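Dear H.,

Thanks for agreeing to be a second pair of eyes. The structure we're designing against is below in token form, covering all 195 positions.
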């Protein structure tokens, strides 16, 4: 279901129809990696390992069922039907390995039009938690903060969940305190209307 917690932002959490195949792909240690493994971001986070994925066509193929559901939510929420009218392109994709003590600082994703996070594990106690954050939350009176969620929304994702957010939405990952490794993949997408 599409949620609009703040007027300029949204998030959509979808259990991927092809979740087994999608999770298998992001966990595949033999997956094709991008030749450039240097990251210009992440100096303020602590992560065991991150790898830029390389097979963008496969990523788009695996994300397509979830993207269709997402755009259907947009249609239901706004009346805008873009079915068959958009061409998608992966701008960048990488997977994250969170081990004990790892976290991701609050950040956004400039330079793309849509961000998605794919969760490779069922959430369990001690796992880090993904959260989204309202960059304007400090502007809201304390009275309203007690009534409506204006600061952060914390998620306990299921294995195979795909969360779509706009690139300007602040988000992060809390410290991981479990001995089990948590795996996610992040994908920056661009799209254009087909003429």
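And this is the sequence the design step returned. I haven't edited it by hand at all.
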């Amino acid at each position: 279901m599409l949620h609009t917690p703040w007027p300029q932002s949204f998030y959509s959490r979808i259990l991927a129809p092809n979740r087994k195949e999608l999770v298998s792909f992001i966990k595949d240690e033999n997956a094709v990696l991008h030749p450039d493994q240097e990251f210009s971001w992440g100096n303020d986070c602590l992560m065991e390992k991150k790898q830029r994925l390389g097979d963008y066509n496969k990523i788009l193929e695996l994300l397509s069922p979830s993207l269709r559901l997402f755009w259907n939510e947009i249609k239901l929420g706004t009346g805008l039907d873009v079915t068959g009218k958009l061409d998608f392109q992966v701008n960048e994709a990488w997977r994250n390995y969170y081990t004990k003590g790892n976290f991701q600082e609050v950040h956004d994703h400039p330079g793309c039009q849509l961000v998605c996070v794919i969760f490779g594990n069922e959430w369990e106690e001690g796992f880090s938690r993904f959260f989204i954050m309202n960059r304007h939350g400090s502007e809201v009176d304390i009275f309203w903060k007690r009534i409506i969620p204006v600061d952060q929304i914390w998620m306990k994702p299921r294995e195979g969940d795909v969360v779509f957010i706009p690139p300007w939405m602040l988000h992060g990952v809390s410290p991981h305190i479990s001995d089990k490794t948590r795996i996610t993949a992040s994908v920056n997408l661009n799209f254009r209307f087909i003429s």
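Two observations from my side: The mean pLDDT is 90. The first helix runs from residue 19 to 27.

Warmly,
E.
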